[in-house]
Predict the structure.
Amino acid sequence: MFNARDKCAIAGVGFTDYSRDSGRPVRSLASEACLKAIQDAGLSVEDVDGFVSYNFNDSVPAIAVATELGVPAAGFAVDFLAGGNAANLIVLNAIAAIEAGLAKTVVCYRAMNGRSGFRLGGGREMAAHGITQFTAPFGWITYPQAMAMWCRRHMIEYGTSAEQLGGIAVTLRENAVLNERAMQRAPLTLDDYMNSRMIVDPFRLLDICLESDGACAVVVTSAERARDMKQKPVYVSGGAYGGGPQQGEDLFDAIRWPDHAHNYSKYIAADLWASAGIGPEDVDIAQIYDCFTYSIVMQLEGFGFCKEGEGGAFTEGRRIARDGALPVNTHGGLLSEAYIHGFNHVIEAVEQLRGQSGPRQVEGAEVALTTAGAMTCGSAMVLHN
Amino acid sequence: MGYNKPLPYPNSETKPFWDACRDGILRIQRCSDCGTNRFPPTGVCPACQSDRSEWIEASGRGRVFSWIVVRHPVPKDVYADKVPYVVAIIALDEGVRMVSNLVDIDVDSVQADMPVTVRFDKVTDELTLPVFVPADGADRGS
């Protein structure tokens, strides 16, 4: 279990514009976000000795960013070959490195031309090697198709409805309307959702996240050092990474997973809360990985905000709205702000806890949950100011 | 016109499965030590870690565990002529799951747990795909 409660903090954040076509190499996006995060912390490149990122062969390695920025000694430069499940893991990895003495101040980032370059949602190769030979030949190819299969199980077991999923999309859009960096800011109604095109039943277009070009970065350092830096530290009090049995041979494959109505979150929740020393009832805001509307349903249950099977009902009655009991994805999420593979959730949590979220600020937010991943493995953190 | 959809590339572990499909036989692995059935094919039994296994003939019967109806084709040029189509996870009677297509059915009438049976569709000289159809007596919809 994560045993570094409050020993490290996020001391800086940086991000680029989010767009459909950046017109720039991914390395340039990564470097811009990382440099902004370093400067936000009041540091210079000489103060940084680590870079950690994750990618799907669609980004640039940590050493490329360190090289472009002229970092004199990037000792801990590490890349995870991973999906959104790693969006919190890289911060936990930076903390592990700092605690072990492998680095002092680490920049974590995700950078991608996810719309103009390699599109994660676009499908897989026609040559079905490995585990893919048992999925792709049947036209089961894209992540929306994969997750729709999970969602159906929840509908079968618990009666989760299209109206509940639509309510999530509508609520998150309300937040994006207030967010100047969100890619989708036009108000949305439940009718808009119900009338949006059925892509892969049970998912409509508006169940599916955006595709984005952009980059996000944060600076992680010891709490002691963070207290002397420019910004108010945001402490990492808890964290967990993992999943359950039979996770499959890649992120897509979940043929042997026990039950697709439940994801990784139910398997790591106990460790997450124990490591932070709090429970879900203590959380003020939650930035929950929302590659699809349905991903939020499973995680609300898995992390214990409601009972198993009640995730759909939990989202009703504006409970997850900005003025509700548990504001979720206060930036609009991957569904309406941007898809920086889940790392933009960490940015939003930090800004909220610093009180820097402008018109969408949740007053008095002190404790935030961030989560990453939707399927068989994932990561999560508890942050506080 | 050639077959333009994704083709499986069998390896030493999976070739017996695809070879059997060409002969109209649905095969799964069984651990030679503890008897646990498994699919997709692997080298080691996840129940007892034995590396000894054999191929058995499955009944070809199962039930719909979950399903989707693909309406938006991806890649567009490959699946435009196929939508709407059903992809299902089938829970075989032998206790393993398999991904396949559910065919010969109205795409809007699929039900959870409906009984299905395998059918073999030859798509190229080399490849025969195991697809599933509603079992005799099951409601085939309109």
About this structure: The first helix of chain A runs from residue 26 to 40.
